[in-house]
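Example S7 (structure tokens).
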């Protein structure tokens, strides 16, 4: 589900309305439906949306924390629509960076996992920002480690935009049959919003039995 706010002038006529995805199509081409209240007599509205939906969310302080729960946090806004428009088109933007790790010769490893270590995990976004590109208000300086989610041959984690210092032990690979080891990305690197940072991890140990 997505959460939706509708504003007319300086007044919100709908606040954090949950809309459910309809149909079997991919989300990029599907529909969200639900009931939205519009102010009588207003000529135009602006619709703000975010994903994933959270109860009691504050549109000026939407909190994402990968150490609590991971998601592909996105927002959308559509200005200048009216009751006559019928369907409203939403174009969502990815507000986080996607770190994607690939482990070489992974087929030779059994029951292994990848953790991204000591990174900033928490950010605050505001739908009230003047522009969609300016919605990220802050990134908490506190760091934590996040277990990456396996997707086929890749391990993924959605994180706030940040700089990764040179020489930092960024990833830990551990599992049965081999000693855990760290991956240090060569040189300084950036995790940028709406971008994927691919990391190729080559184990520096003998192949496990």
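Recovered sequence:
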């Amino acid at each position: 589900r997505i959460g939706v706010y509708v504003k007319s002038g300086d007044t919100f006529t709908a606040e954090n309305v949950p809309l459910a995805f309809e149909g079997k199509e991919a989300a990029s081409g599907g529909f969200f439906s639900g009931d939205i209240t519009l102010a009588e007599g207003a000529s135009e509205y602006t619709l703000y949306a975010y994903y994933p939906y959270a109860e009691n969310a504050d549109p000026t302080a939407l909190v994402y924390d990968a150490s609590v729960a991971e998601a592909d946090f996105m927002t959308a806004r559509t200005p200048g629509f009216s009751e006559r428009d019928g369907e409203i088109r939403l174009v969502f933007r990815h507000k986080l960076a996607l770190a994607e790790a690939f482990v070489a010769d992974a087929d030779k490893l059994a029951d292994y996992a990848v953790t991204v270590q000591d990174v900033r995990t928490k950010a605050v976004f505001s739908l009230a920002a003047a522009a969609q590109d300016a919605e990220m208000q802050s990134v908490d300086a506190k760091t934590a480690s996040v277990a990456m989610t396996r997707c086929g041959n890749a391990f993924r984690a959605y994180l706030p935009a940040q700089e990764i210092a040179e020489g930092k032990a960024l990833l830990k690979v551990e599992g049965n049959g081999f000693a855990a080891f760290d991956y240090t990305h060569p040189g300084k690197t950036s995790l940028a919003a709406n971008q994927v940072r691919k990391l190729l991890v080559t184990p520096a140990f003998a192949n496990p039995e």
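Notes on this example. The mean pLDDT is 86.
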